[in-house]
Design brief:
Length: about 325
């Protein structure tokens, strides 16, 4: 093994959500999903081989204890590549996701770690296989291996080799994503246990695969025709449908805070006034706004603290 160069993977926002697994040990999804990668927001990772019996894990410039939850997750993932060799690394991870944005970093984190391992071990793997491997760390990480719009094909195989991201050959130069942070009073249930609870306890979940399949189709149409209203409507309805299944779980999973609902109402008011802005939400209280460049000022007037990204801006 050699030292890897510093590898980057972006965060991604799902427009059609991954919610529910058909296989938990391999993170194989019940439904296909579709996301957009956040350009320069994500994780940088560098690996250096070290003469030691345990990985040395650094996060944002600070060395963590081997017993820290983050170190354990990183080492368990590297174990997939270690085979019989006693091969340990200094793992330096830097997230440039603004803490104010309230975005999870596991998708970009596992994607960047996969790219760095590919480099350090000289594996020279195809992007699709890198996506399969990243998926083992966290399902949504398989989409963060690519830029732009990415579909995660659910696949059929038990070994998961056909369950990976595919980059769509499409751009949307005016597309903006706004990260609207809502402070959560309490620590939320993470996606992994949240989706398991939903699958196991919500009868409403039975309708989710149909909703997701229909939405995926609409998103492909919206992207092909550059139809922003169709894109936004579909993403918003998909997110609310996913949240409906969460609320119908037991114990109930309600990720919304009063401020989340207030932000939804602001979005709906803006739409009533003719401003095409939509939102999506993941397993947390924050909204991710979808709008086009020409509405940016109007949206920022109502969401002054919004962090904005143009996924296709720098191309
Ligand atoms: C709501 O990928 O974090 O953000 O596979 O258990 O690691 P694991 O789950 P994770 O779930 C993400 C769920 C979501 C929707 C999405 O990003 O598609």
């Amino acid at each position: 093994a050699k030292a890897s160069s510093e590898l980057f993977a972006p965060s991604n926002i799902a427009l059609c959500k991954y919610w529910g697994k058909r296989d938990r040990s391999f993170n194989l999804p019940v439904n296909a999903s579709l996301s957009v990668s956040l350009d320069y927001l994500g994780t940088h990772t560098r690996l250096t081989p070290i003469d030691a019996e345990v990985d040395e894990v650094w996060l944002n410039g600070q060395q963590l204890l081997p017993s820290a939850k983050f170190s354990q997750k990183v080492s368990a993932f590297i174990d997939l590549f270690r085979r019989q060799q006693d091969l340990y690394f200094r793992v330096e991870t830097r997230n440039n996701i603004p803490t104010a944005a309230g975005l999870a970093s596991s998708a970009s984190g596992f994607a960047a770690l996969t790219l760095a391992l590919n480099d350090a071990l000289g594996l020279d793997l195809e992007p699709q296989l890198l996506s399969v491997l990243a998926r083992h760390g966290s399902g949504s990480a398989c989409r963060s291996v690519f830029d732009g719009f990415v579909e995660w094909r659910m696949g059929q195989r038990e070994d998961g080799l056909d369950s990976h991201g595919i980059a769509l050959d499409a751009e949307w130069p005016d597309l903006c994503i706004g990260l609207a942070k809502v402070d959560a009073g309490e620590k939320a249930v993470d996606s992994r246990s949240g989706m398991q609870r939903t699958v196991e306890t919500a009868h409403l979940y039975q309708s989710w695969p149909l909703q997701a399949a229909a939405d995926l189709e609409k998103l492909h149409q919206a992207i092909a025709r550059q139809d922003f209203e169709l894109l936004g409507q579909t993403a918003e309805q998909n997110a609310l449908s996913m949240h409906a299944t969460m609320i119908a779980s037991w114990p109930p999973l309600l990720y919304w805070q009063p401020e989340s609902v207030a932000a939804m109402q602001t979005v709906w008011t803006l739409r009533r006034h003719g401003v095409p802005v939509y939102f999506t939400m993941d397993a947390g209280p924050n909204l991710k706004l979808l709008f086009e460049q020409q509405c940016r000022d109007e949206v920022l007037r109502h969401f002054p603290d919004l962090e904005t990204v143009e996924p296709f801006g720098s191309r």
